Amino acid sequence: MSLPADSQLRNPVSLQFHQGTVLYLNGLVGGARQRYPKREWQRVLANFSLVCWCRPDGRRISAAIIGPCPVANVTITEIFFDCDNTLVLSEELAFEACADLTNEILESRGIPDRYTGEQLIQDFVGQNFRGMMVSLQAKYGFEMPQEELEAFVKKEEDKVIAKLEAKAQPCVGANEELEKLYKAKKYHLAVVSSSALRRVQASIKKVGQDKFFDEDMVFSAATSLPKPTSKPDPAIYLHALEKCNKKPEETVTIEDSKSGALSAIRAGIHVIGYVGSYPGDEKKVEMAKLLKELGAEVIMKDWSEFQDCLSQIERLEQASQPTRHRLS
């Protein structure tokens, strides 16, 4: 039996009653799993309080969810930024370099298909090169030895960085908003990207954004984790939260892609969906719809809207009140 909670909400809760076992799942902070085969009340202290009374045979007598626990005073204190096509117009340049290497890999395996940078963006936007290669192997049914993969990852990083250092530009309006945030000192700021750390650092340095972020506050799914990964895996966001000593509910991130938004949402973080870097109104509308459906709370079409978007999320967070759901 489950409460009617949407899995995309920040505080999803599921209860199961099976042979006297009560499971508390998906709590925003930690969650818990407790077994109580006898009749007794148990209070699980996380973001939700669970009170349940069960018989040993699993038949539920009474159960209630009281939650979220008092968090009315939670305010936004942390802002995370995706890098590629959110802060820096880098995706097109990066995928141009990726296309050459991708086609080299396909040709070496006798696969006739070839990619342009634009086609790669359509299929793999939001993923780093390692993630793209995993997807490519699955699509075409071949395997790359680990040594070969690592060699191509390094080649891709070098080629992309060279292009970024030559041609990268900031997303329109991003630098101005970063300047305001940096001077106000109301929020802690960090970059959370799928891309390799060297590439992210080269991007923000080229466009003059490196001064807004402490050097150790730039996080990379490809580099910062013990095991490299890529969005939509939430690992990099969870890592950033830990390093910044922040909770998901006090954090907002700006993401432009499906994989990036899913990564943040799965970590329980508020998401502003940014569509300003997509070409043409039709694509912007399409991506706005997709990001909203995934769980982005606000859509931002231009960086000039950022302060208003952030205020909307802060109002939503402050309006959260404890609720009580009764199962009978």
Principal-axis shape equals: globular
**Strand portion:** 15-25%
Gyration radius from CA atoms, angstroms:
22 Å
Going by helix content, strand content and strand pairing, the class is alpha/beta
The number of strands is 14
Order of strands, widest sheet: 10-9-6-11-12-13
Characterize the largest beta sheet: strand count, sense, and whether it forms a barrel.
6 strands, parallel
Pfam family, one: HAD_2
InterPro entries: CbbY-like, HAD-like_sf, HAD-SF_hydro_IA, HAD_2, HAD_sf, PGP-like_dom2
GO molecular function, one term: phosphatase activity
Architecture overview:
With 328 residues, this protein is α/β, with parallel strands linked by helices. 39% of the residues lie in helices and 19% in strands. The protein has ten helices and 14 strands. The chain has helices at residues 91-108, 117-124, 129-140, 146-167, 174-184, 197-206, 235-244, 258-266, 281-294, 306-319; strands at 14-18, 21-25, 32-35, 49-54, 60-67, 78-81, 88-89, 169-170, 188-193, 218-220, 251-255, 270-274, 298-300, 323-327. The strands form four sheets. Strands 10-9-6-11-12-13 form a six-stranded parallel β-sheet, with helices on both faces. It has a three-stranded antiparallel β-sheet with strand order 1-2-3, with no helix packed on it. Strands 4-5-14 form a three-stranded antiparallel β-sheet, with no helix packed on it. Helix 9 links the parallel strand 12 (270-274) and strand 13. Helix 1 packs across helix 2 (117-124), helix 1 (91-108) runs antiparallel to helix 4 (146-167) and helix 8 packs parallel to helix 9 (281-294). The radius of gyration is 22 Å and the shape is globular. The N and C termini lie close together (11 Å). InterPro entries: CbbY-like, HAD-like_sf, HAD-SF_hydro_IA, HAD_2, HAD_sf, PGP-like_dom2. One of its GO terms (molecular function) is phosphatase activity.
